[in-house]
Specification:
Helices cover 0% and strands 53% of the residues. β12 and β13 form a beta hairpin. The protein has a four-stranded antiparallel beta sheet, with no helix packed on it. It folds into two domains: 109 residues, Sandwich (Jelly Rolls), CATH 2.60.120.380; 101 residues, Jelly Rolls (Sandwich). It is globular and about 60 Å long.
């Protein structure tokens, strides 16, 4: 079954269902980069389509960045990410490029495009176990940041059934590594910790990779330059407030 989700993002405006984060201030006359996030659900056999407008010639970097189950845990199921031109009927996506694989934080399709209306879609390869949550990220241009590579300290707390997240900027392609230094009380054996990217309003954290983290553990994920987030969440075992302390090393 096919269905359509039609979303067109303006150059410096945020529209429902997409994230637009210019790296130059609105009104400056020049936009060097913007990030669009399209999120929704996909069931076996479905092909969600999202469209977006490109105001001028820019490189495009696209990745099928997140696929999670109803509990919010990442799935390794491969799907086909497709990039194309929106058909005249406003529904279909005429494919220009495609790649099949699991969700990842690094771009999977990289092209140079002129101004126009384009589209991205996901295609079930037949391996999807059931209705799942997905997120696609489209980066127009090349993000630049004033921050530098380094280490962030992240200490907070998480409640039963809840999560907390913080954002970080990767100034260049590389690896984000999360060190789980401590959490309490001692009766808590593990926490869920993942790396992903945020939605259009800066909320949540669409996970690409996650781990069942114990004290002293660490895990990593490869990223492109861009904005990401680290999420700490209950695996369904917490009975009270749990405090934690992490270190996040980013490029």
């Amino acid at each position: 079954m096919r269905f359509r989700s039609l979303i067109v993002c303006a150059a410096v405006l945020t529209a429902a269902g997409c994230n637009n984060t210019p790296t130059t201030p609105s009104g400056s006359g020049t936009r060097t980069s913007a990030t669009l996030v399209f999120a929704g659900t996909i069931a076996p056999g479905e092909t969600p389509v999202h469209s977006f407008g490109l105001p001028g010639a820019l490189p495009l970097h696209m990745n099928f960045g997140s696929l999670t189950n109803s509990a919010g845990l990442p799935l390794g199921t491969p799907l086909t990410l497709r990039f194309g031109i929106l058909a005249a009927n406003g529904i279909d996506c005429n494919q220009l490029s495609a790649v099949t694989g699991p969700a990842a934080l690094q771009s999977q399709i990289n092209v140079s495009a002129s101004g126009g209306t384009y589209c991205v879609s996901l295609l079930d390869t037949g391996a999807l176990p059931g209705t799942s949550n997905y997120a696609i990220r489209v980066t127009e241009g090349t993000p630049t940041f004033t921050t530098e590579a380094g280490t962030l300290d992240y200490s907070s707390s998480v409640e039963p059934g809840g999560f907390t997240a913080r954002s970080l900027d990767a100034t260049a392609g590389g690896t984000v590594t999360v060190f789980v230094d401590a959490f309490a009380p001692a009766s808590v054996p593990s926490l869920g910790v993942g790396i992903g990217f945020q939605r259009n309003d800066g909320s949540g954290c669409e996970l690409s990779v996650a781990a069942t983290a114990t004290r002293g553990s660490q895990f990593s994920g490869p990223v492109d330059a861009g904005r990401y987030c680290v999420k700490v969440f209950d695996l369904g075992t917490l009975t009270g407030t749990t405090t934690f302390s992490l270190r996040i090393v980013h490029p």
